[in-house]
């Protein structure tokens, strides 16, 4: 999110935010605030006065309002021309595996305030954790045949490997975090 000094509304969001090298004087870009919705991640010490949980909630609302408006405009404008009043729209949000129920409820409240789930046929689902979503994505991709072509390494050869994921197979997925999106 990028803000102008003295303005409450966001100037830009997402990929529209200027890079730090191109930001204008009197503007500030706030990124990586996803983790701060959990107050235990808020900075402590000298930086503490810079922002608090209410600021973080505001950034979330602004981001999700911009996202909702973008989705709505994209689907209702040409070429899509979706009739928003007669089309079922289900928003499924991925969640941090660390969030407790109270934080999930707070997050749901924020996305509702941003416009998600409003409408005669719109709903919100608090979906899988990011780690669960990574496992599902991996299982989907491993359901197809994979081949590793022969290649020569300095000390050994790597030969073709073909496998299929079958019921009862075990797959270990290591979700290393970092604020990635759900696939």
SSE topology sketch:
Layout: E1 2-4, E2 10-12, E3 27-29, H1 53-76, E4 89-95, H2 101-113, E5 122-129, H3 130-142, E6 151-152, E7 157-158
Give a quick summary of the entry.
With 183 residues, the chain is an alpha+beta fold. The chain is 27% helix and 15% strand.
From the structure above, extract its key features.
3-stranded antiparallel sheet; 3 helices; alpha+beta; 183 residues; two-stranded parallel sheet; globular
Low-confidence runs of at least 5 consecutive residues: 145-163
What is the spatial order of strands in the main beta sheet? 2-1-3
Would you tell me the overall average pLDDT? 75
Helical/strand content category:
alpha+beta
**Structure annotation, total helices:** 3
**Main beta-sheet strand count, sense and barrel state:** 3 strands, antiparallel
What does the radius of gyration come to? 21 Å
The first-to-last residue Cα distance is 23 Å
Helix content: 25-40%
Shape: globular
User: Beta-sheet strand percentage?
Assistant: 15-25%
Number of strands: 7
SSE order, as H and E? EEEHEHEHEE
Explain what you see.
The chain has 183 residues and is of the alpha+beta class. It has helices at 53-76, 101-113, 130-142; strands at residues 2-4, 10-12, 27-29, 89-95, 122-129, 151-152, 157-158. The strands form three sheets. A three-stranded antiparallel sheet has the order 2-1-3, with no helix packed on it. Strands 4-5 form a two-stranded parallel sheet. The chain has a two-stranded antiparallel ribbon with strand order 6-7. Helix 2 (101-113) links the parallel strand 4 and strand 5. The longest helix has 24 residues, at 53-76. The chain is globular. The two termini are 23 Å apart. The model is unreliable at 145-163 (pLDDT under 50).
